[in-house]
Design a protein that fits this description.
Layout lengths: L1 E2 L2 E8 L7 E4 L4 E8 L2 E5 L2 E5 L4 E4 L5 E5 L4 E8 L9 H12 L5 E5 L4 H13 L6 H17 L1 E3 L3 E2 L4 H19 L8 H7 L3 H12 L3 H18 L4 H7 L5 H12 L3 H18 L1
Antiparallel strand pairs: 1-2, 2-9, 3-8, 4-7, 4-9, 5-6, 5-8, 6-12, 7-10, 10-11
Helix pairs in contact: 1-3, 2-3, 7-8
């Protein structure tokens, strides 16, 4: 199910492999609950072993991947953007979770037995219900899950991969490239910057991005530009301004890419946001 600011999925597969859910990141937060199977979750430079009932919270823009053993796997997952439903105060709950467990990164958790059935039921409501009219209802369910994470869950111990020096060097290179892209989105016209700035071949960096994100470098650049355009539109910019400021030289390419990625046009997003602001003013 996909609504503005919320994407959910319920996967139930008989077979899987480590390439089924490759390393990636996105501009939304994510909650994932394992229902069936034995999996590992990679979040930044830590790896967590998951058992049925375990739940993962991933913060926006964190690198993560679900690693399976090839057997059956079932999970529920919801990606959400807190600002879409500010009245749910999700940012406050996310801060509570960070303070409770002393972590500013995502992690895996085990719920107390007495709350697990209720949390599981809410995750199923988020991922399986098909009402398309009231997105606030789904954010209410998400709020309930986050509340239980903050008050009735145990942090699982992960394996710190940063102690592997070779892995750390690769991560540093990856981070350096993504940082450069983030700082130069509006003026990157091709991939010549890779050899010029980092002295690596395009082929090597593409392999690195496929390993971490499952996509090549140029696809990553396009997605980052779309994320930036979304934020600019949310802040009131016109579609043409958002297109130019996020690095698209051709508006038609921007428009087609935006619709394909988000499922609705830039003008539809503006109408939704404008309507939400009017609703707030009417209720004041």
């Amino acid at each position: 199910m996909e609504l503005i600011g919320l994407y959910t999925v319920h996967k139930n597969e008989l077979t899987s492999n480590e390439n089924s859910y490759p390393v990636h990141r996105h501009c939304s937060h994510e909650i994932l609950m394992l229902i069936k199977g034995n999996c590992r979750m990679l979040i930044s430079d830590a790896e967590y072993a998951l058992l049925p009932g375990d739940t993962v919270l991933v913060f926006e823009n964190e690198v993560h991947a679900l690693l399976t053993d090839g057997g059956p796997v079932e999970f529920l997952a919801a990606q959400f953007i807190p600002r879409v439903c500010e009245e749910a105060h999700l940012d406050t709950l996310l801060d509570d979770i960070s303070k409770t467990y002393g972590k500013n990164t995502g992690a895996a958790f085990t719920f107390k037995e007495n709350v697990l059935p209720a949390v599981s039921a809410n995750m199923r409501r988020i991922c399986d219900e098909r009402a398309e009219t009231d997105v606030n209802m789904y954010f209410t369910y998400i709020r309930s899950v986050l509340y239980e994470l903050a008050h009735n869950a145990t942090l699982k111990k992960g394996v710190d991969l940063s102690k592997n020096s070779a892995y750390e060097e690769i991560v540093q290179l990856y981070n350096s490239v993504t940082d450069y892209i983030g700082a130069n989105l509006d003026n990157i016209s091709d991939l010549s910057f890779i050899e010029r700035e980092f002295h690596y071949s395009n082929s090597y960096i593409n392999k690195l991005f496929r390993r971490f994100l499952g996509i090549p470098v140029w696809k990553y650049i396009t997605l980052k530009r779309l994320d930036l355009a979304y934020n600019l539109l949310s802040d009131g910019a016109s579609a043409k301004s958002a297109s130019a400021r996020s690095g698209f030289s051709d508006y038609s390419v921007f428009y087609k890419s935006f619709v394909k990625h988000f499922g609705y046009s830039p003008s539809a997003l503006r109408r939704h946001l404008t309507g939400a602001e009017q609703d707030v003013r009417l209720n004041e």
